[in-house]
Amino acid sequence: MEIKRLSIEECREGVFDIRRKVFIEEQNCPEHMEWEEEEERDSVYFVAFSGDRAVGCLRLRPVEQDLLKMERVAVLKEFRRRRIATDLVREAMIYVQTETPSSSIYAYAQVTALQAYVSLGFTVLSKVWIEDETFIPHQTIFWGTPVSISVFLKHQAEKSDVVYEEYDARHPSVLPKIEAYKQRLENLETWNICSLHIHLEDRVVSKIIRNNFIKFCANSQEFLNGNHDLSSDIVKQSINLLKIADAKLNTGHFNEVDENWRKLYALVSFVQSFLLFRGKRADFENAIKIADKGLCMGRIDEEIVPIRQLAWLIHEQLPGVSAPIHSSFSSFSSFSAEKTQNFLSPLPNSVPISECDDSDDDCLERVISAISQGTPLLIRRHCMHMPAVRKWNIEFLLKELHSRTFPVEIGTKYSDEDWSQKLMTFGEFVENSEYRFSVKKSSKITFFQKKKHLQNQRLYLAQHRLFDQVPHLKRNVIIPDECFRESTNPDDVDMNMWIGPSNTVSPLHTDPRNNMFVQVHGTKLFRMVSPEDTSSVYPFDGILGNTSQVDVENPDATEFPEFSRIRRVFDGVVNAGDALFIPKKWWHFEALIVLCLSCLFVTPRYNTIAFFGGRVSAKPRPPFAKPRPPFPKPRPPFPKPRPPFAKPRPPFAKPRPPSAKPRPSFEKPRPPSAKPRPSFEKPRPPSAKPRPPFTKPRPPFAKPRPPPFPVIISVIILLFPVFHPHLRREAPPQLFSVSVPFSFMILGGLLTNIMT
User: What is the predicted pLDDT for the residue at 732?
Assistant: First the structure.
């Protein structure tokens, strides 16, 4: 079965045949009500084909700039109960969502088919009313997103003196219902769960999976309406859908996974969390875990599905947790370079990282120079003005994030074989900075293997997009100026968070983009190697090609001899409030001396304009504010786009009838017998003498021409002081040293010219 979007001229015969059989013959509708040529021309048709035969149709007609009416949904009798009508309605909803996202849909649905529309996300606005002449009971239904509903209500408020039927979606008695529905959507008191299916693309997600998801959403909506007998079916369906999405997410490289599988994971997680949050028996703890897992594993636009807002609302309902803090999270004062020698011993080729102070007069010039040349630079006290540096510590974050779930690394280094990841709440992360692997009694392992498994493992919340998951923390962060060299839009800067206890390390690795590392709390040690020495750091093969095999704390010269031959290894200590510029492709190793809270700002991939003005602050925006508009603002297209259902413009010139006489040309044709026109120049007779040349040739033995007058005058002027007695006595000797050689040079040139 194939569904096509067509105009009436492309499908007139097939569509009229379907509507005649369904509405006129089966439902006895008057024929004069079925056809209206002007409406047909303005509409867009969605037609289902079985081979070359049209078997189902749907009409979408614009009634206003931001409102479409869905009409004439029909399927031939022998092709019903195959979900063809459902697919047609779904295609129409996808079309509106993608092509005109600020538009809403309303329809007059027959009562017998009302439940099918409700299962797809439509809301019932009116009581049952009887259509004139057909005597078929109908109800008014409506569908839209919070954005499109806001646009619709705004335009309706601007109207006056317009009369509609009582059952019309634009009638004054119906508009308050739509306003109340929009308010409930914004407060997440309800959500249009049944319409989430339109966000999955058919080319990636198969029809079987999509239909299972539609059924899962319909059952979830019934559960919210009070039918709790469907709870077991909902659990089974959600588990199966998450298994499918999880299998796709863990196949191949993470960046190569299609976005539709991340969307599916996020959508299922949103529905699960919403049911636990708004169900009869609210379970806030499991609801927040599922929502956070959807944020970590899935990805979807917040304006489409507000899963971040849902997680924040659930977290606000949970009581504060005062979890015990592990000793490895204890805070110490910042360390100086002398005190860190016991933690990171200098190598024979170690040199300090170039640094400057934020208060230095030449700080800005040095920063610009370092970024232009691609060399690391440590800027002392560069971010002391950042609110996070003054406010953030482990107690503050525990209060803000106690029940939120994050991916935590387990192990000393991610390049080790026993390294792994685990999703755990922030309270569990703080309480157990050392994680013990549990081993079953029936496991057949040796005593030494068991002892190795029971060793304490370090926990590290590394390179996590915490600000995307918990947006309200951005109000305490100020993006450094250096990140705006390539783009002035703050949304183009990736912001990652690093939280780890003492004695945690990140092995020597490299990143493909420029980084600005900011230490918020604690002290970190860095060891860096230039990209020119990449071959000497022995990178891993395969997926860990950006990580070195060398233990740079204690390098083994026997196993890695080239590393000891590197000319310079750069060491540095970064304290709270300091910033370190890490150029792209530079190898860097990190070691945590005490509890560390760090922010990493990754610059965009493209170049636009340079900017080094005042600091750009992430001002306290609402947790779920709409994204800022791009800078600079995009220029409007020219010419302006026309509405999708606008009538075609008339041609500039009316077509001439076939029988019309040809228009006369601007120049009258000359008769064949006419004489040729005279040319501008008269031809010369063949016997005419040739014209003389511009200059006459000189005879072979002619006398040489006299030298030009300016040359003679210059020779006299140069030789005059030589032969005049008074000037010869009074003139300085420098005059003779200049005039005499020049005079003889000119005389020699004249003689040579005369002789030749």
Answer: 56
* Tens-place pLDDT, residues 417-445: 777 888 888 888 887 765 443 333 344 44
Tokens of 335: 């360390």
Task: Please name which of 565, 489, 498 lies closest in space to residue 526, comparing C-alpha atoms.
Answer: 498
φ, ψ of residue 110 in degrees (nearest 5): -65, 140
Q: Find the distance separating the first CA and the last CA of the chain, reported in whole Å.
A: 100
Residue 703 token pair = 């006398």
H helices of 35-82, in order, are 37-42
Calpha distance 465→599 (Å, rounded) = 10
User: Which one-letter DSSP state was computed for residue 580?
Assistant: E
DSSP three-state, residue 412: coil
Query: How far apart are alpha carbons 207 and 82 in whole angstroms?
Result: 12
Q: Is the peptide bond before 639 cis (omega within 30 degrees of 0)?
A: yes
What CA–CA distance (Å, rounded) separates 536 from 531? 10
Residues of the chain with pLDDT under 50: 331-342, 435-455, 606-639, 652, 666, 680, 694-695
Question: For 457, which DSSP code?
Answer: E
The C-alpha atoms of residue 40 and residue 374 are separated, in whole angstroms, by: 63
What DSSP line would sit under 449-468, residue for residue? HHHHHTS-EEEEEEEE-HHH
The per-residue pLDDT for 527 is 94
141 closest CA partner among 160, 159, 115 = 115
Alpha-carbon distance of 334 to 144, in angstroms, equals: 55
What distance in Å separates the CA atoms of residue 529 and residue 672, rounded to the nearest whole number? 89
* Span 520-558, pLDDT tens digits: 998 999 999 999 999 999 998 887 888 999 988 889 888
- Count of alpha carbons within 13 angstroms of residue 1, beta-carbon side: 18
Q: What is the DSSP letter of 5?
A: E
352: three-class secondary structure by DSSP:
strand
Is the Cβ–Cβ distance between 600 and 459 less than 8 Å? no
Provide the pLDDT for residue 741: 65
Tokens of 141: 């239904």
The H helix count followed by the E strand count for the chain is 22, 25
